[in-house]
Give the backbone structure.
Amino acid sequence: MSKTVSFITENFGKYDPNSIDSYLSIGGFTAVKNALAMSSKEIIEIATKSAVKGRGGAAYDTGRKWSQAASVPGDNKVVICNADEGEPCTFKDRNIIEKDPFRLLEGMIIAGYTVGAQNGYIYLREEYRHLRSLLRNAIQQTMDKGYLGDNIMDSGFSFHIHLYSGAGAYVCGEGSTLIESIEGKSGRPRIKPPFIKEAGLFLLPTLVNNVETLAIAAAVLQNGVDDYIKYGTPDSPGTKIISLAGNVNKPGAYEIPFGLTLREIIYDIGGGIPDGHKLLLFQLGGASGKIGSANILDTPYTYQGLAKEGLVVGSGGVLVVDDRTRVIDFVKSIQDFFIHESCGKCTPCREGNRQIAKIIDRFVEGNQKPDDLHTAERFANIMQNCSFCGLGETAQSAFLTAIKHFPEEFGIQQEVAK
Ligand SMILES: Cc1cc2nc3c(=O)[nH]c(=O)nc-3n(C[C@H](O)[C@H](O)[C@H](O)COP(=O)(O)O)c2cc1C
Ligand code: SF4
């Protein structure tokens, strides 16, 4: 029996993403119609009941975020759809945009209506430039049909959507950096406060949501929240699109109910490891996520189950690495990624990534010094606590969790591993 489900992805392959008529023929824009017949408060109650945590990685409660955004005073607000999807091993947002762009627009319109915004911005990563024309076309057709623009469906609510592209920097997925980028500045995060919910894009109150979060909102408004929360577990209701990649037989974006075990994800959905190789490790949530080993494969994929093992859902990436790779080489590649992507604004991240990488290099070559592990852990600790943004706070996750799960790979005696 299939372990995947189709709630968020229910429209995939069912209509032509280039045609609003095709979308309307399968019930498109029912979610917007339903939303416009409700008050903002009612929609926030539904979002709260859905218990959806933001799918961009930070897992902030969506109902709470929308409630806060709605209560910020101001008659000129902004909704941003974060389609930067820069996290390595994460391609679920691309799947939503490619296969169901109109549902994403519905999610943005609903979010705009709920928080009282007049303008929406899609921030699309540069590497998805091939999707620009698809989105432009979807926006134009939605305007032409009167679901976007002034006085949508005679509701008195007006909302416009604008499309922006990044220039290929991972850090621009961070909310305030993304805003700087749209404003034409270089991609570096802003100091907070003021928080972007109060003074974000062009200093207007701004709501930032991930593509998947917005698509879920539209699916929930169309099908009813009870249909959504019947999936999953009591603590982590609903479904999630994971990006399963690496050494599995069937990589891909899959919608799963929360609660499957990691073993079911990797072996039943992913078809196991190719060519008779053994699982070495997996990394959840992209390059900034943590590493786990085969010992914890029976952990349920829920926010709470993963947290017990020190893991996170993050962006929903599930990267599988088999025994053809050395743990230390894998960790080195992650650290190199962060050296490249650090924006350089703050010292802990700019220098810390480099220093940790130098130490990892010595482990790779087998000529590490006796105090190297201790020194690297001190750098990692400083980065976690003193970096200016989430990039520096999480860049050492793979390194630290590799030490925890594979101390012997670092030539470290068992007793130093925590
Ligand atoms: C370095 C960094 C990169 C990020 N990249 C993304 C991204 O590519 N897409 C995304 O949706 N969120 C990303 N985030 C999280 C966003 O800052 C923000 O929390 C999210 O877009 C909010 O939407 P959500 O509540 O729907 O998850 C990133 C955060 C950091 C610190
Ligand atoms: S932690 Fe500091 S250097 Fe690293 S990306 Fe954020 S602001 Fe830039």
Observations:
- Residues 20-229 form a domain with the Rossmann fold fold (CATH 3.40.50.11540).
- The chain has three domains: 20-229, 239-322, 327-416.
- The two ends are 40 Å apart (CA to CA).
